[in-house]
Design goal:
The protein contains three helices and four strands. The protein is mainly alpha-helical. Strand 3 and strand 4 form a beta hairpin. The longest helix is centred in the N-terminal third of the chain and has 36 residues. The model has no long low-confidence stretch (mean pLDDT 83).
C-alpha cells in the first residue's frame, strides 16, 4: 500500500492529472468561443451557421458534404482560437524572457595549454609560452 501511495503522490502522476482536468476545462472554453462567437460571424457572412443540409445526389446516392464543411469550419475555428488565445501569448512571453546574447568574451585559449588568457596577452600566465596578442 505504501508503494502505491508513493506512486500516486509522485509529481508526474499529479502533473498529468492536473493537465487532463485543465485540458478538459480549456476545451470547453474553446468550444464555447467557437460556437458562440466565431460561428455566428460565419453565419453573418454566409447566411447560415449550419451547412449540414448541403448535399448532392448521383445515381440515388446522397453525398452530404455539408457535415464535412461544418467539421472543417469547426477545426479551423478551434485551431485559430488556440493559436491566438494560447500559442501567440505564450510565444510573446517566452520571447520577453529570453536573455540577451552573451557578450563576446575578452579571453581566448592559449595555443599551447588551452587555458583561457586575455586577448591582448603576449605570454600565457599558465604555461608561460609566448603568444601573439590579438587586436
Amino acid at each position: 500500500m505504501g508503494e502505491f501511495k508513493a506512486f500516486i503522490l509522485r509529481g508526474d502522476v499529479l502533473d498529468l492529472a492536473v493537465a487532463v482536468v485543465i485540458g478538459a476545462a480549456f476545451g470547453t472554453v474553446v468550444m464555447a468561443l467557437v460556437k458562440d462567437l466565431l460561428t455566428p460571424r460565419i453565419a453573418a457572412v454566409f447566411g447560415r451557421p449550419d451547412f449540414s443540409a448541403l448535399n448532392f445526389k448521383i445515381n440515388h446516392s446522397r453525398f452530404g458534404f455539408g457535415d464535412f464543411i461544418n467539421a472543417v469550419i469547426a477545426f479551423v475555428c478551434v485551431a485559430a482560437a488556440v493559436f491566438f488565445v494560447v500559442i501567440k501569448p505564450v510565444n510573446i512571453m517566452t520571447e520577453r524572457r529570453r536573455k540577451a546574447p552573451e557578450p563576446e568574451s575578452d579571453d581566448r585559449p592559449c595555443p599551447e595549454c588551452l587555458s583561457q588568457i586575455p586577448k591582448g596577452a603576449s605570454r600565457c600566465a599558465f604555461c608561460t609560452s609566448v603568444v601573439a596578442p590579438l587586436a
